[in-house]
Amino acid sequence: MNERPKLLRARERLTLRDLAAHAGVSRATVSLVLAKSPLVAEKTRARVLESARLLGYVYNRGAANLRTRRTHTIGVAINEITNPYFTGLTAEIQRAFLDLGRTVFISNSDEDPARQEQFISTMREYNADGLVICPAQGTDLDSMRRLREQGIACVLMSRDIAGSGLDYAGHANHRGISLVTEHLIGLGHRRIAMIGGVDLTSTGRERRAGYRETLAANGLPLAPELVVTGTPSRSMGADAIKRLLRLDDPPTAAVCFNDVIAFGVMLGLRQVGREPGRDFAVFGYDDLAEAELWTPALSTVGIDSHAIGTAAARLLLERIDNPDAPVKREISQPRLIIRASGCPPAR
Amino acid sequence: MNERPKLLRARERLTLRDLAAHAGVSRATVSLVLAKSPLVAEKTRARVLESARLLGYVYNRGAANLRTRRTHTIGVAINEITNPYFTGLTAEIQRAFLDLGRTVFISNSDEDPARQEQFISTMREYNADGLVICPAQGTDLDSMRRLREQGIACVLMSRDIAGSGLDYAGHANHRGISLVTEHLIGLGHRRIAMIGGVDLTSTGRERRAGYRETLAANGLPLAPELVVTGTPSRSMGADAIKRLLRLDDPPTAAVCFNDVIAFGVMLGLRQVGREPGRDFAVFGYDDLAEAELWTPALSTVGIDSHAIGTAAARLLLERIDNPDAPVKREISQPRLIIRASGCPPAR
DNA sequence: TTTTCGATTTGGATCGTTCTAAATTCTGGG
DNA sequence: CCCAGAATTTAGAACGATCCAAATCGAAAA
Predict the structure, then answer these.
(1) In this structure, are A226 and A163 located in the same domain?
(2) pLDDT in tens, B3-37
(3) Residues 47-86 on chain B lying near strand C, CB distance under 7 A
(4) pTM for this structure?
(5) Whole-number Cα distances in Å, A56 to B47, B71, B132
(6) Could you tell me the sign of the dihedral formed by the alpha carbons of B48, B54, B59, B63, in that order?
(7) Tell me, what CATH number does A18's domain have?
């Protein structure tokens, strides 16, 4: 009459044991039912399931993970979730893993390597099966390299860390900017500005190199005064273009690091009475949803976020299954999208 | 010589036991050290910590949680993370909990109640201490009510579910729209459109009611043809305004459900040769970062996301500590922001 | 040299599952 | 009615931490 001394405990959590007692079977059988094992008899299964429903049983995944050492859980660290390109990518990667039956935990690093490290170690402590990382600016190479040694399945997404020895799902940034730059050169532009991007990320380095090398390949000089560095934001784009237009020999076109900057550039042009797509050519990068809605609609480079997310998910699962396979890279190709913000040089 | 028969296992995970053996103390002592207990002698602590570093020990939080029944983990379900207002709110809520020493797991429901339910039950299975939910459109009242009965600490954020019996951190939407509407009436407008919002969310209902009731309070008739319903997007804003301008007695101003729609409206106006802020008054809601960068800069209503995130975090922790306290609500106040997109009626 | 008492350390049970090996129950054929 | 072999079910030891009560240690007091 006093078999369960813990009855007094405030909000007693229901366990497998209670469920087993209620259904009149052993814990092992209940476990089998919950794991959808074909071993258990149909009648028993139904009875257990009915008890679970009746009692409002909640499975304790933590306890199960402790035993199985597999959590079916993936951690995703995003450098900066309020950047719309990464917001979209985040949505894609979550969708991809959900489709594959994994649980996804997302964290925003806010471009802070310390926050990112914090999240990574939390996920390790929770025994996550793997990690997808869009590294924050200034991420330490060693800390990434350590991941590999520590034997944690991990893939980098969108931003590469050279020498990390990790798998990578990204985009051909160099080629994308190349397409834009060549297109502008073909239109007759000779003074082409490159606005935004920093060398702290592979994306910045690749796009900026793409610009420089395409100019060179076409016999155009690199004018340092036309290259402006900076973290992307609308206001940095607006400020930059206003400054560039005050030069003695101002540019007639701008290749922007991304769409957000390009929007800023278009706003800045208007503020000084110049019409983008008529007086000045503007190209963005990313093809955000709003790009085609602007007037003029923004010419830009399309990135296939869906492909990147899917590739990252696939790479990670392969890595989990086979920790010692050689490092893999999947690079999605850019798509030049010509809309109305480009034009031949004015005058 | 064969004390650890499991030496063969592939990538053996290091445990407290290994650490204890290495440092020459008991498991209990190691546990004390890791929990930063003041009970353990300084010398012992140093030795254990050194062993941990040397061996590359990783704490197993899952195992600990099993014993302690507290995870210090919070789940955050966001209705739609690619909506910039919610992206910002997500960043705020994560920051708030991180500051309070909690681990935060974020999930994007994509406005799909099923995805949201899925996440909630995963978090329950992981024994999360609490939940913050921005409910997806069409969230079932019963499922929210059940949360309360199930004794899970939970607060709603930004979107309320009447009758759920859950705590709520939100914004005075009715009053915000009221401020806008009254401002426009004061400017002399009589034909004021309301664009966007659906009755599926409390936000939609509150803002739409605010518009209707403010018109009534000022003795203006409600013209049904001036009210357009719809899920927010730039294109819906652009389409709506073009349609409204073709009416026999077109509006001279628009109160938009949010900034995104207002941007669409401004784009639509330009497409038909009308200049926002001169020929037509446009007001948004949310005060997204880009609102002040548009030309004309968008007049709008500021929402204090930081306050909402902080309030939600505080409410949740209070609820966790005291599950039976009466339900609480925290409503942040709107701030009318007058910029350049408003104007008196043209003509 | 004992005693005593605070400061440290520890053994062993426990949290809620899974898993292995073995026990039990069914079946149909002889 | 018995029995082999398949179909089900189960006991009990993990998994890796925490926590309680009790043991041990040290230094000061007697």
Answers:
(1) no
(2) 333 333 345 689 999 999 999 999 999 999 999 99
(3) 63, 66-67, 69
(4) 0.90
(5) 47, 21, 22
(6) negative
(7) 1.10.260.40
Closest partner CB to A238 (pick from B65, B106, B293): B293
Nearest nucleotide by C1' position to the A29 CA atom = D9
Contact B263 A91 (CB under 8 A): no
Chain B residue numbers with beta carbons less than 8 Å from the beta carbon of A263 are 290, 293
Does at least one atom of strand C sit less than 7 Å from the CB of B27? yes
Q: For testing the chain B interface, which of A80, A127, A146, A306 should be mutated: the one with the most B CBs within 10 Å?
A: A127
* Rounded average pLDDT per 10-residue block, chain B, 347 residues: 32 87 96 95 96 95 92 95 94 93 92 95 93 96 91 95 96 98 98 97 98 98 97 94 98 98 94 95 95 90 98 96 93 98 91
Q: Return the residue of A nearest to B123 by Cα.
A: A61
| Helical packing angle, A141-149 and A113-125, nearest 10° | 10
B185 plus B294 within the same structural domain: yes
pLDDT band at A4 (very low <50, low <70, confident <90, very high): very low
What mean pLDDT value characterizes chain A?
Answer: 93
- CATH number of domain containing A119: 3.40.50.2300
Nucleotides of C under 7 A from a protein CB: 7-12, 14-21
Number of domains in chain A: 3
Which structural domain, as residue segments, surrounds residue B148? 73-170+305-332
- Sign of the C-alpha dihedral computed for residues A128, A131, A137 and A141 taken in this order: positive
Residues B287, B300: contact at Cβ < 8 Å? yes
Q: Do B234 and A290 touch (CB under 8 A)?
A: yes
Query: Do residue A91 and residue B108 have CB atoms under 8 angstroms apart?
Result: yes
Q: Which of B13, B53, B107, B120 to mutate to test the interface with A (most CBs of A within 10 A)?
A: B107
Is there a domain that residue A181 lies in?
A: yes
Give the HSE-up count for residue A314: Cα atoms under 13 Å, Cβ half-sphere.
Answer: 11
Name the pairing type of β-strands B192-195 and B335-337: unpaired
Do residues A188 and A283 share a domain? yes
Please check whether residues A47 and A30 belong to one and the same domain. Answer: yes
Does B90 fall in a domain?
Answer: yes
Can you state the angle between helices A202-217 and A173-186, rounded to 10 degrees?
A: 40
> In this structure, are B295 and B181 located in the same domain?
yes
